Amino acid sequence: MKSNAIWILVLTAVLVGFVALSGGGIRPAPLADPLRDRLAAEARTALARHASSGVLHEVTLVAAPTRLSLLDGRELDVWAYNGQVPGPTIRVRAGDRLRVRIQNELPQPTSIHWHGVRLPNPMDGVPGVTQPAIAPGESFTYDFEVPDAGLFWFHPHVRGSEQIERGLAGLLIVDPPEASPAPRELVWVLDDWRLDESGAIDPAFVTRHDLAHDGRWGQVLTVNARVGPTFDVRPGETVRVRMVNVANGRVFAPDFTGLDAKVVAFDALATARPLPADGLVLSPGNRADVEITIPAHAPGTRVAIVDRFGRRPLALAELRVDGPPAPSSEVRASSAPVPSWTGAHELPPDLVFRLNARRGGPHGLEWMINDVPMRHDDDHGGFHQPAPYRLQHGRFTKLRFVNESARLHPMHLHGQFFKVVARNGISVDEEHWRDTVLVGPRETVDVGVVPLDEGSWVLHCHILEHHDSGMMTVIAVSG
Ligand code: C2O
Ligand code: CU
């Protein structure tokens, strides 16, 4: 009797609802939202893609253990793409198509994620979400068009805490479709290495200590896998230093004080205008292009570039000024249409992500998003997925990160560029897009995003130990 009564209630409710919706043929119109519509239109314009060029690049990568002379010249057992650390640089033009076959000769399943590249979801390289992991001995072919110019990188998305630390990371440099005058380039892959007493890569990965802190921080800092390399520059020359932080956990704050240095691109895309380089912070995953004009110093001058993120400055690299003076460059100031998104701050957050940890899980401590860890299935290289968050394609959406912990969390969203709109409730206009934002201890960061690609995109902390212990979730974008 009781269940009959419930059924009658349900049927009545459905009927009433149907009559209400169909009555007079009137459907509730979607609420007009002129502010959101304007913000979304600004993003669409600014993030327009380069058209297909019809050019195809075919690349083969073999991921395998090898032994290389690295760091201070010592022999080091590493895992490498095509026997190189840092991995090979793939260089294409925006609009070109890239077909990369990866052969897995590692003792573990792997995959390749194209960090920051806007590509079709099945090419995103996240096992358990966009593809099965590539088993040892097997291969996979990534095939996609590259729509944006800038500096990108690629790395495994399986046990990154081990695979990236052992040396698997390469660069994807995408030039604008037409050649234009550009300063000479220096590419700096920033990394750190934790070595054990024997001088080998410490084989203890995702330790309790790493998890209770900001991931694995090594005692050896490198630029292009070398300790303190020297780069030759000419007096008066303008160079573009293109930096990427591939470290597991370390944040770099390269100090260019005393030089005329301007940030002209961040996380691949050009900034709204050249921005002052002081205060530049690169968390794991971030890239920045910094244009430096070398003073007309006497030849032989050396300029030390140090990292000032921690309490003690740490040496990174040296510029050696030498040779005849360079002619003054005719390179124009870069600029890109980055909307300032005025008014975005007034909108409430659409999704709130609380970042926190708890005891337990396979590593003794697990990092979570909204109290849910995404458990990795290492044997199959996949994940036990939580239910995805949903976002609407093309709609301006505000995401709020609330760091409930005392640790750092560089949050990375796949497949989209976003912009910081507020920190701790105070409106900010960063004048550049990002794909990774550092959320400091107890900090709240609001970002605006207009999802322009459908599919299941992961959102995770780029401190690889936090990531591998659960700090990842899925955002499903649909129309
Ligand atoms: Cu560079 Cu999902 O990360
Ligand atoms: Cu984190």
Overview of the molecule:
This protein has 479 residues and is mainly β. Helix content is 10%, strand content 40%. It is built from five helices and 31 strands. The chain has a six-stranded mixed sheet with strand order 10-9-12-16-14-15, with no helix packed on it. The chain has a six-stranded mixed sheet with strand order 20-19-24-29-26-27. Strand 21 and strand 22 form a beta hairpin. The longest helix is centred in the N-terminal third of the chain and has 21 residues, at 2-22. It is globular and about 65 Å long. Mean pLDDT is 92; it is low at 8-25.
Number of strands: 31
User: What percentage of amino acids are in beta strands?
Assistant: 35-45%
Number of helices: 5
Which molecules are bound besides the chains?
CU-O-CU linkage, copper (II) ion
Alpha-beta classification: mainly beta
Shape: globular
Span of the ends, CA to CA: 43 Å
Average pLDDT, all residues? 92
Portion of residues within helices: 10-25%
Strand order of the largest sheet: 10-9-12-16-14-15
Low-confidence stretches: 8-25
Oligomer: single chain
What does the main sheet amount to?
6 strands, mixed
C-alpha Rg (nearest Å) = 24 Å
